[in-house]
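INTERNAL AUDIT FORM
Audit reference: QA-55
Scope: verify that the stored structure record matches its stored sequence.
Auditor: D.O.
Record contents follow.
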Amino acid sequence: MVENNFPNDENGAVLNRMQGEGHNLSAPRDIDFSIVFPNEDSAQFFAAQINQHFDKVVYLETETARALKWEVTATRYMVPTHQDIAKTEELLASIAAPLIPTVIDQNSCAHLRRPIDMMFHGRSCSVFQA
């Protein structure tokens, strides 16, 4: 069994699972980072703000009963390291924070779809969840 040094958090758990399944975590891959917004204007503005930092940025309306229904997905080709994923999530969260109403949901993480979740569920490379 391979020993790892992943932090004990959600991203660490997914990286640990990927490693346990035999994924080569030193190989770069597309990783999707998604954030949902309350309206198209916010999603479009956010997409324009982050476009220079990612290989691909798209936004679309999602089918949901929630108030946050415009999803922006930014794809970055990178090695899936815990530190780089966390830095990218922090960048996105800092840019998105002023655009997302805080009273929409009691769960502060509900607006941010973590890239590691998308990766794990086959959305981009081989793995990422909402």
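Auditor finding: record pair retrieved intact. Residues 103-108, 117-130 have pLDDT under 50 and may be disordered.
Action required: none
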